[in-house]
Amino acid sequence: MTPDWQCAVVTLVHYLIFVLLTMHSAACISTTGVTCDLAVSKRQIFLGGVVVILTFRCSFAGDGVGAFVAFLLDVLGLVYIIGPLSVLVAFVDDNHRSLYRKLLIALLYVVWASDSGAYLVGKTLAHFHYKCYHTLAPHLSENKDYEGTIGAIVFGVVAMAAASEMLNLPGSIGTKVGCSVLAVLFGRLGDLFESLLKRAAGVKDSGSLIP
């Protein structure tokens, strides 16, 4: 499916919103720290972009239902990109920069280890000719199963324990284990959601483009 000019316009609006939000965050951090006295808030920038997209879709779409569905998908794409990235803005807070950097590093350790754990468990089970895989969502991805998820959780918890020891992270063991499990589960859900988007766009096997 080839994107049309309307998709290109919406993509440019997405890019503009992201740039404005990034500039807003940078200006606030460099001037007043946590609080910000700029005339336009981040919420106003985001909502303004949503209004622009809605107006554009309604103006050039012949079908009202189709325009509304396209608008919802546009907003979903905007939130999917800006939402997770906006979380990272908090990690540059001057008051807690050292702690936030440690937490970010620990989170990356958990994500990397969980992906590796799921892969290694899958390869190990395949080596022993394991046949009874229990897929999470076979209509979205046949490669995401409960066995791999268990391996991802185990590796993620081990990675958090190692990161906690190396970085001297605060908090109880239960809190760290719980956060690790949640991070792994959200990561698996994110993989399934990405598979859903790829299937909807007809590019489910796009990874095969790279040998």
From TrEMBL:
UniProt topology in membrane: Multi-pass membrane protein
Pfam family, one: CTP_transf_1
Alphabetized GO MF terms: phosphatidate cytidylyltransferase activity
GO cellular component, one term: plasma membrane
Keywords assigned by UniProt, alphabetized: Cell membrane, Lipid biosynthesis, Lipid metabolism, Membrane, Nucleotidyltransferase, Phospholipid biosynthesis, Phospholipid metabolism, Transferase, Transmembrane, Transmembrane helix
Transmembrane segments: 12-33, 45-62, 68-91, 103-121
GO terms (BP aspect): CDP-diacylglycerol biosynthetic process
Compartments where located: Cell membrane
Principal cellular location given in the protein's record: membrane
PANTHER family given in the database record: PHOSPHATIDATE CYTIDYLYLTRANSFERASE
Entry protein name: Phosphatidate cytidylyltransferase
Organism for this UniProt entry: Phytophthora fragariae
